[in-house]
Amino acid sequence: MVSHVPLSLRRKIVIALDSDQLLSKSPADAGVEADMSGRFQSFKAVAWAKANIVRAQEDHVFLVTSVDSGSGSMVDGATLAMMWNSMVNDVDRHRDIQGEADEALRRLGEALRRVGVSSTVEVLAGAAGETVPRFVHAHKGEILVVQAPRRGAVASALWYSWADRCAHVAECPTVVVKESDLPDNVAVALDPPPSQQPVRE
Q1: Domain ranges of the chain
Q2: Average confidence (pLDDT) over 65-84
Q3: Is the pLDDT of residue 28 over 50?
Q4: Which of 73, 41, 56, 79 lies closest to 177, judged by CA?
Q5: CA neighbours closer than 13 Å in the CB half-sphere of residue 134
Q6: pTM score
Q7: Of 43, 62, 22, 26, whose CA–CA distance to 149 is shortest?
């Protein structure tokens, strides 16, 4: 059960999730297994924050992700793949990416609510390296937890990820959670408590 401490008195924690892992893939991509793997990584990132940082009765969590239109000067491999798929796949042209991201965040918010953590969700528009730090500033975030994106060796060597930029720019302590930090058993942090049903004799 979520405590009724006013939001103004709670510590504000922002958890920023990688949209490429959070969102479902198109039919042209690697398939259902890869899709579920990405979503499970996002779930585990939230569970890790719950297990290691979030205090249920004292904190409020902002779950955010940022959907980039791809209008920036630097186009990464994921954006190129999405642009290509939108040209060759009729389904992708009509996808509501903003709506999908909002629904995915709401499901994670519901998982937090079941373990007693108050939360709100927000889908930002633009490059995450810019929108997330602005969100943290606007909402007076006190801790930022960032899910590191999946990147190839070339991309990692050539330029910073949005998570790296957040760590440098955000006006609060920032924790970047890598996939290697997330054992599968961390997911139990979001398991709902057992119901307190009276035992019948």
Answers
A1: 7-189
A2: 59
A3: no
A4: 41
A5: 11
A6: 0.79
A7: 22
